[in-house]
Design goal:
Helices cover 19% and strands 50% of the residues. It is built from 2 helices and 5 strands. A 5-stranded mixed beta sheet has the order 1-2-3-5-4, covered by helices on one side.
């Protein structure tokens, strides 16, 4: 995959909240940030990696109910080929924002150099 980050940005572009890699720098109250937290070999043959497993972490932050946004994010990620493997929520006292954590994985064919 040429750029996992661009793929995720494209996947999330119409969910109703801005998404950025690692650090959100915009002015919106509700936003998404994401990053790849692990990448491992999914299959090897002849001592060469054939498939990669990309593990992605998404954070949704909002001062109000984010359930509809989270539902859209999960739908878009699933349509793009990601599989959800974790989900939790919390409240950030310091920022007064609700925080939804979503984790996904995606298996891709390893590109040749």
């Amino acid at each position: 995959m040429s750029s996992l980050n661009n793929f995720i940005l494209t996947t999330l572009q119409d969910v109703g909240a801005p998404a950025e890699y690692m650090n959100y720098t915009g002015d919106e109250d509700t936003y998404i940030r994401f990053f790849e937290y692990d990448n491992e070999s999914g299959l090897e043959a002849d001592d060469e990696e054939q498939y990669s497993v990309h593990y992605v972490h998404l954070d949704i932050f909002s001062p109000w109910n984010y359930q509809d946004l989270a539902k859209k994010v999960k739908q878009k990620m699933k349509q793009a080929g990601f599989v959800k493997n974790a989900e939790t929520e919390m409240y950030e006292e310091d920022t007064k924002l609700y925080h939804k954590v979503l984790r996904f994985y995606l298996i891709t064919k390893t590109e040749e150099d």
